[in-house]
Design brief:
The complex is a heterodimer of chains A (about 140) and B (about 160). Chain A folds into two domains: about 90 residues, no CATH class; about 55 residues. In chain A, helix 1 crosses helix 3 and helix 4 runs antiparallel to helix 5. In chain A, about 75% of the residues lie in helices and about 0% in strands. Chain A is an all-alpha fold and about 140 residues long. By secondary structure, chain B is mostly helical. The radius of gyration of chain B is 19 Å and the shape is globular. Classes of the chains: A mainly alpha (about 140), B mainly alpha (about 160). At the A-B interface, helix 1, helix 2, helix 3, helix 4 and helix 5 of A face helix 1, helix 2, helix 4, helix 5 and helix 6 of B.
Chain lengths: ~140, ~160
């Protein structure tokens, strides 16, 4: 049951990309980015009110902890630009490749305070499969 | 445009990993809803700055603002739902399965939507998707083997 639910949430992600991508096609990239974040912010404020939670700004944590949202702006921008010419499936495949490569590099070098997890050569097999999948998707 | 889109798609994977790392550290400190709020608030601020310094700002008009179909405006809200549901799910099932199940859902919904919007139903996307699924699960398994206890291995085989 929880598996089916997870698959549905995955479907929701594709739906979101279509919504955002269509908005960007009509309103252009930077304007739509503001709308997307505004609507999300309003949705969160509703959730906060519903949960009777208040915003707490903790001062004793490093400022860069708050930078996830700033990086997310690029994610939305890149996804919307790709949607216009490649749709959803191919950027999804390419994005997974990017995610794998980034995680491997971050783990290998122990960046951002994480512990060092050296690159296992076996992972080249998985990366190769992902690469073949991407080529098949684009070529056929 | 085709090659730019390919490079940007790969880069979007990189930015997803980076923002997820920061958001996870923040969530540990202040909780999930709070951290998601700051995620969108900081994102909102930066998206506004981007807009102001772009050439779109001077051409901004009410008519363009309302030119999209009504459903297209709800992407941000769907994003909030996705963030909350996937973090709820990550407590329920191992991240290993969650990553794969989310991928399957994304892939099939993506194929359907591509069919509806681009009018192309390619068997290549299904076959390519199967290859990616194999590669993804193989590499996730390598990570999983490192941390895990023997009981988790048994459950991996149930997949």
């Amino acid at each position: 049951m929880i598996s089916i639910f997870s698959v549905l949430v995955g479907g929701l992600i594709s739906l979101m990309i279509m919504f955002n991508g269509s908005l960007a096609n009509s309103l252009n990239n930077y304007t739509s980015n503001v709308i997307i974040h505004s609507v999300g912010l309003v949705a969160l404020i509703f959730i906060l009110i519903f949960n009777r939670e208040q915003i707490k700004f903790k001062k004793n944590i490093p400022v860069y902890f708050y930078s996830g949202g700033a990086i997310g702006v690029f994610t939305v921008l890149f996804t919307n630009i790709s949607f216009a010419s490649l749709g959803i499936t191919i950027p999804l495949a390419l994005g997974l490749l990017g995610q794998s490569l980034a995680s491997i590099l971050i783990d290998h070098l122990g960046l951002m305070g994480g512990k060092v997890v050296k690159f296992q050569r076996k992972k080249c097999i998985g990366l190769l499969f992902i690469l073949v999948g991407i080529v098949v998707m684009i070529a056929f | 445009m085709f090659y730019i889109a390919i490079v940007l798609s790969i880069l979007s994977g990189v930015t997803i990993v980076l923002s997820r790392m920061f958001n996870a550290s923040l969530a540990k400190e202040i909780g999930l809803i709070q951290s998601t709020f700051f995620n969108f608030a900081v994102g909102w601020l930066f998206s506004v700055l981007f807009l102001i310094f772009s050439n779109e700002f001077t051409h901004l008009s009410f008519n363009t603002l309302v030119s999209a179909p009504i459903w297209a405006y709800f992407g941000g809200a769907v994003g909030v739902v996705v963030v909350s549901l996937s973090s709820y799910l990550s407590y329920k099932i191992p991240v290993f399965y969650l990553t794969l199940l989310l991928f399957i859902g994304q892939l099939f919904a993506g194929i359907l939507i591509d069919f509806a919007t681009l009018n192309q139903l390619s068997i290549g996307k299904v076959i390519g998707g199967i290859f990616i699924f194999i590669g993804l699960s193989y590499n996730l398994m390598q990570d999983y083997k490192k941390e895990l206890d023997p009981s988790a291995l048994i459950s991996t085989e149930k997949l």
